[in-house]
Amino acid sequence: MVFILILVSFGFVNGQNEMGAMEFNQTRLDYNKKGMLILGLWAAGNMAVGGVMAGRTSGETKGFHQMNIYWNSVNLAIAGFGYYQATKEIPNSEFWATMEAQQGIEKILLVNAALDVAYMAGGLFLLERGKRLEKDQFKGFGKSIVLQGAFLMGFDVVMYVFHHQNGQNLPKIFNKLELTQNGIGLVFPL
C-alpha cells in the first residue's frame, strides 16, 4: 500500500525529448521533495501510533512501539532537512553541476539501500539476542528495526528507480552540446 502511494505521488517520468537542463533539475528536486514528504509522513505516523501504543502495552510490543518512536524521530529530522535542502536549491543549467547532482543522488540512494540491509541484519540480531536472553524489549526493538529497515529499503529503491529514470534524459539534453569557436555551447535547431 505504501509503495502504491509512492508510485502514484511521483507520477510518470517526463518523457519529453526536448527536456532542458533546468527542467531536468527541477524534476530531480521535485522527486526529492515528494520523497521527503513521504518519509516525513511515515515517520510522523509511526511516532503518533508508537506514542499511543507504547503507553498502552507492555513487554515486546511496548519495545516495538518505543523503537518506532526513536527510529522515526531520526527519520523525521532527515525528512525535514532533506525537504528544506530540496526547496532551497535553485535548478540551474550548468552541465557539470547537473551531472554531479544526478550522480550524487543516485549514489546516496544506493549507499542508503546497503545501510538498510545492515539495519535489518541488526534488527534480526537484536531479535535473536532477545530470544536467547529472554528480553522482551530486545525482541520488540529487533522487530521494529527490521520493519523500519524494510520500509527504508523499499523507499530507497523506489527513489533510485525514479531518479535513475530521470537520469536517462541527460543524454537527450546534452546531445545538443557542440564545441564552437567560443567554447562549448548549446545548439538548437531552427
TrEMBL record:
Record keywords: Membrane, Transmembrane, Transmembrane helix
Pfam families referenced in this protein's UniProt entry, alphabetically: DUF6992
The keyword Membrane appears for this protein: yes
Bilayer-spanning residue ranges: 39-57, 108-128, 140-162
InterPro entries: DUF6992
Name this polypeptide is given: Uncharacterized protein
